[in-house]
């Protein structure tokens, strides 16, 4: 049974805490409900917004269409072999809860992605990643419902066309499918990734030696790092990293390095370097600054925050100003990681 409501506030469904409204709203708990929804002709042509945890959205206006809150649950092992365990999770499963399930059962591969906000369904759309690991490294396939036909389609790894915080669902297939379930391929024999960010140093402060290293230790270290640097959305509205880390040519990087010797960079290919957006923003003097009720977080310049009562337009305004100052100073254009509505 579908319970379609109208004029629903989205304030508690987005981590920025923006009080936008949905013209229509429905919560989906099963695949069957999703298929039923697309048999309702009155909503076929309506604009649709798929909502997971609301942790990667900035509402600058009300949504004059149908908001579909994906709440399909369930985590189960569907098969395994000598080296891998294949785990299927519903689109509405909290991402961190899936990580904890895998860590507790000794299934390796996503421990570096601990405490990332959001849901399983949004993870492949964004190809979420942190500390040297991205979803595409453990992704097997997903099931998605075609909005036009109501039919289920399976997308394999190649068909998802993963890139840095990118997938086919943000481009050619945008607005055409709703992800209902995702299957991941976890490792029985872990490969540890600890040479990113402050993981190695944090493990040392925790008293974790190479002999004691485990996926739980890495998960605990990542959780400690994220809690020390990133604000809790329950306390201050934010959507985590607002901008992507830009990739620039090695030639441009070397030129900038001459002018700014402290400029950090990480090779991403033969001819490109990834530069931390937070460092660029901080060098432009934005860290801890605010305009009205919108601002840049005092501990992490990559995070824009709602100090209370800010509108989406106010947060977007400060984002534009940050973009412009970084481009003026470094000649680098920052692109949002957050989806702007």
Automatic annotation (TrEMBL):
The active site is at 165, 241 (proton donor), 337. Its main location: cytoplasm. Its EC number is 1.3.1.98. One of its GO terms (molecular function) is UDP-N-acetylmuramate dehydrogenase activity. It comes from the Bacteria. Gene3D superfamilies: 3.30.465.10, UDP-N-acetylenolpyruvoylglucosamine reductase, C-terminal domain, Uridine Diphospho-n-acetylenolpyruvylglucosamine Reductase, domain 2. Pathway: Cell wall biogenesis; peptidoglycan biosynthesis. Residues 18-189 form the FAD-binding PCMH-type domain. GO terms for cellular component: cytosol. It catalyses: UDP-N-acetyl-alpha-D-muramate + NADP(+) = UDP-N-acetyl-3-O-(1-carboxyvinyl)-alpha-D-glucosamine + NADPH + H(+). GO terms for biological process: cell division; cell wall organization; peptidoglycan biosynthetic process; regulation of cell shape. The keyword Flavoprotein applies. Cell wall formation. This is UDP-N-acetylenolpyruvoylglucosamine reductase. The gene is murB.
């Amino acid at each position: 049974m579908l319970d379609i409501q109208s004029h629903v506030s989205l304030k508690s469904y987005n981590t920025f805490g923006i009080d936008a409204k949905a013209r229509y709203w429905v919560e989906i708990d099963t695949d069957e409900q999703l298929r039923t929804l697309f048999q309702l002709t009155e909503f076929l042509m309506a604009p649709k917004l798929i909502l997971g945890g609301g942790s990667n959205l900035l509402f600058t206006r009300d949504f004059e269409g149908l908001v579909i809150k994906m709440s399909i649950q369930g985590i189960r092992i569907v098969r395994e072999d000598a080296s891998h365990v294949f785990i299927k999770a519903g689109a509405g499963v909290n991402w961190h809860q899936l990580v904890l399930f895998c860590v507790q059962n000794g299934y390796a591969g996503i421990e570096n992605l601990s405490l990332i906000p959001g849901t399983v369904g949004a993870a492949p759309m964004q190809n979420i990643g942190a500390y040297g690991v991205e979803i595409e490294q453990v992704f097997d396939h997903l099931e998605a419902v075609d909005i036009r036909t109501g039919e289920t389609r399976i997308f394999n790894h190649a068909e998802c066309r993963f890139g840095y915080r990118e997938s086919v669902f943000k481009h050619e297939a945008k607005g055409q499918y709703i992800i209902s379930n995702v299957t991941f391929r976890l490792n029985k024999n872990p490969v540890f990734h600890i040479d990113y960010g402050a993981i190695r140093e944090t493990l040392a402060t925790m008293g974790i030696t190479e002999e004691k290293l485990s996926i739980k230790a890495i998960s605990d270290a990542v959780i400690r790092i994220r809690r020390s640097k990133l604000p809790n959305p329950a306390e201050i509205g934010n959507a985590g990293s607002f901008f992507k880390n830009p990739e620039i040519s090695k030639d441009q990087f070397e030129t900038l390095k001459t002018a700014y010797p402290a400029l950090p960079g990480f090779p991403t290919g033969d001819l490109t370097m990834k530069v931390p957006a937070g460092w660029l923003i901080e060098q432009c003097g934005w860290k801890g600054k605010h305009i009205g009720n919108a601002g840049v977080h005092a501990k992490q310049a990559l995070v824009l925050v709602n100090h209370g009562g800010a509108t989406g337009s106010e947060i977007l305004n400060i984002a534009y100003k940050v973009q412009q100052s970084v481009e003026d100073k470094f000649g680098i254009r920052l692109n949002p990681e957050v989806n702007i509505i």
